[in-house]
Amino acid sequence: MPRQPPRPARMLRNAERPAAAAGLSRLLPSRLLPDSNERPDLSVVLRVALHVAIVRTLYLRVRYGGWCVVSRGTRLKIGPGSRLLIPDGSFLFLGFAHFTPAPCAVHLGRGATLSVRGTVQIHRGTRVFVHDGARLEIGNRSFVNDCSTVTCFQHITIGSGCAISWNTNILDTSAHELAIGGQPRPRSGPVTIGDQVWIGTGATVLAGVTIGDGAVIAAGSVVAAAVPGQTLVAGNPARVVREDVSWH
């Protein structure tokens, strides 16, 4: 008998294509590599590889999932009942890069939560304190630069694509009772920083502040009130000095 020609591979039906694409996406190397604002640089990869605390990083991977990549010397204290929420495919880099010899310090109090989405960097010399029961959230491709301080007593949200420069201070509490006209003011208030926000060096963001998407905070500013999106604010207290701004 003559040989039958091989059957062509079955074509995927339209309904099957999204599921197949989703299955392939889970196998792509991009899910195993951190997202980046720039093309991967070999020197950066080597710096991370040479300074990573391998045992601590693997322990955190097993305990919390995701990747919390810790540099040697980083001071990470996780209190009872506190959580690191790092979804699969997300990366939190602690204590890498780049200009100060001081270590990064992250302290989560009892029942506190540090949540990241995508790739987040907290550089050397930066101090992050999340008080008992408080929640700190940071979005993809955002970084907190050297020697900055983030103090969270209630809830701080930092959006995606944010650049937080050196010596910046972000806090959602005054830690003291203040009365104006005999009326007490709340000690704490949530801080919300939108997407693609640039906070200049030495700036301070106070409790209860909301910063809109695309805003720019000039160096040394003290932000005590809401900042509209796509504006440049400067001064103490910070005021709008330019509108319709953008940055890259």
Written description of the protein model:
This protein is mainly beta and 248 residues long. The chain has a domain at 40-174 and 187-213. It is built from three helices and 24 strands. The strands form four sheets. Strands 1-4-7-10-13-18-21-23-24 form a nine-stranded mixed β-sheet. A seven-stranded parallel β-sheet has the order 2-5-8-11-14-19-22, with no helix packed on it. The longest helix has 11 residues, at 54-64. The radius of gyration is 22 Å and the shape is globular. It starts with 16 loop residues before the first helix and ends in a 5-residue tail after the last strand.
List the helices and strands and how they pair.
Layout: H1 17-25, H2 42-51, H3 54-64, E1 67-70, E2 75-78, E3 83-85, E4 91-94, E5 105-108, E6 113-116, E7 119-122, E8 127-130, E9 135-138, E10 142-144, E11 149-152, E12 155-158, E13 163-164, E14 169-171, E15 178-180, E16 183-185, E17 191-193, E18 198-199, E19 204-205, E20 210-211, E21 216-217, E22 222-223, E23 231-234, E24 239-243
Parallel strand pairs: 1-4, 2-5, 3-6, 4-7, 5-8, 6-9, 7-10, 8-11, 9-12, 10-13, 11-14, 12-17, 13-18, 14-19, 17-20, 18-21, 19-22, 21-23
Antiparallel strand pairs: 15-16, 23-24
